[in-house]
Amino acid sequence: MSFPAFRALVAKDLRLFLSDRRSLVISFAVPLALAAFMGFVTGGHGKEGTPRVALLVVDEDGSALSREVVAGLGSDKALAVTRAERAVAREQVRAGKTPVAVVLPARFGEAAGQAFFGGATKPELTLLYDPSHGAEVAMVRGILTQHVMQAVSKSAFSPQVQGGPVRDALARLQQDGKSRPELEQMLKSVLAWQQSEAAQPAGARAEAGPTGGLSVPFEAREEEVTSGEVRYNAYSHSFAGMGVQFVLLAATDAGIGILTERQRGLWRRLRAAPLSRRTLLLSRLVSGALTALMVLLVLFGFGAAVFGVRVEGSLPGFFLVAVGIALMSSAFGLLVAALGHTPQAARGMAIFVVLVMVMLGGAWFPSFLFPAALQKLTLAMPTRWAVDGLDAMTWRGLGLTSALGTTGVLLAFAALFASLALARFRWDAD
């Protein structure tokens, strides 16, 4: 291979790229804007913690117990609670303005107390929810269970109630004819304790402190497991995803450019020069990889300067992963040129393939949201390795060993794409 000719071809491609303003805008400004937007909507720097779920609460009971449940929901740090009427809540959820609404029906407090010890009909709480917010519904259901159990148990065992649900449960137990002496003894003991507590002076009860209901018997300490003391930065993932997407789109555009040049007879004239087939294709592979590497480095440089994106892992590992992505994307562009018949026919199919690859690769939203079987299938996508590799070197803070494995897989994809391109490339237009 003639190295001076090879170097001249690579330099020519880079000069053409840098002189094309449209190409520069598409390659740099567009991914910067989209990465910034995606990072913002998915949580930004995470300084404010997990956003609270908006919840509408409809209290049609108005009892002391239902008011206590509403107060408990309102004090929960995971929820942003607003009171509303049933019709308003239903309309808000239907319009997509609120993901979940809870309806506490009439006589909820009375019925819940009677059903606490079993034997009585349970009141029915209604959860109105937007079907596109299944995760929020599950979270609200769990939080609601906690606060209802605490309020109902407090009401059932409170000495101020003087019997109430406990007396009703004991009466039902004695009426159903089934012998359950242990449960009867427990309920009688609770009644005796309530009477004893109620007989004490008010001052003595105040010194003993408020009587609470059953509660969760532990406190959860949440700890983000990332790199060191740095909190998760959603911009790191969004810049990785958008960077991978746009270097692949740029490589596709370069492949379409090769098809256009072949259609015009340029590649036939290049073959007439004392240049081997391998030299010509390798020069395009290297120039495309250098362009992609430039885009990735500028993208992450901007992210570091403006959005605090940091390489918390291995800096050499980050560079290796970026080189692997650049070579893989450039080889993919050559494959588009090799398999495409005409620029018009190849463009739509190539863009479709790229969009499917970046979607399955986790560039748009995390791959852990996929079904388990699909998560395994996405490992066959080079984009999955590319996005995960950049995540590992930035916010996950993993070391060089992780980067070596990812880079090896990306280079294997690059070699596969380049080999297929070299074997299938046609020098003359059909």
For the termini, the CA-CA separation is 28 Å
Order of helices and strands: HHEHEHEHEHHHHHHHHHHHH
Counting helices, strands and paired strands, the structural category is: mainly alpha
The number of helical elements comes to 17
Notable characteristics:
430 residues; mainly alpha; four-stranded mixed beta sheet; 17 helices; 66% helix; elongated
Question: What's the SSE blueprint?
Answer:
Layout: H1 3-19, H2 21-41, E1 53-59, H3 64-75, E2 79-83, H4 86-94, E3 100-104, H5 108-115, E4 126-129, H6 134-157, H7 165-175, H8 181-199, H9 202-208, H10 234-263, H11 266-272, H12 277-307, H13 315-339, H14 343-360, H15 372-377, H16 382-393, H17 400-424
Parallel strand pairs: 1-2, 1-3
Antiparallel strand pairs: 3-4
Structure description:
The protein is mainly alpha-helical and 430 residues long. 66% of the residues lie in helices and 5% in strands. The chain contains 17 helices and four strands. It has helices spanning 3-19, 21-41, 64-75, 86-94, 108-115, 134-157, 165-175, 181-199, 202-208, 234-263, 266-272, 277-307, 315-339, 343-360, 372-377, 382-393, 400-424, and strands at residues 53-59, 79-83, 100-104, 126-129. A four-stranded mixed beta sheet has the order 2-1-3-4, sandwiched between helices. Helix 2 packs antiparallel against helix 10. It is elongated, with a radius of gyration of 33 Å. The two termini are 28 Å apart. The model is unreliable at 204-210 (pLDDT under 50).
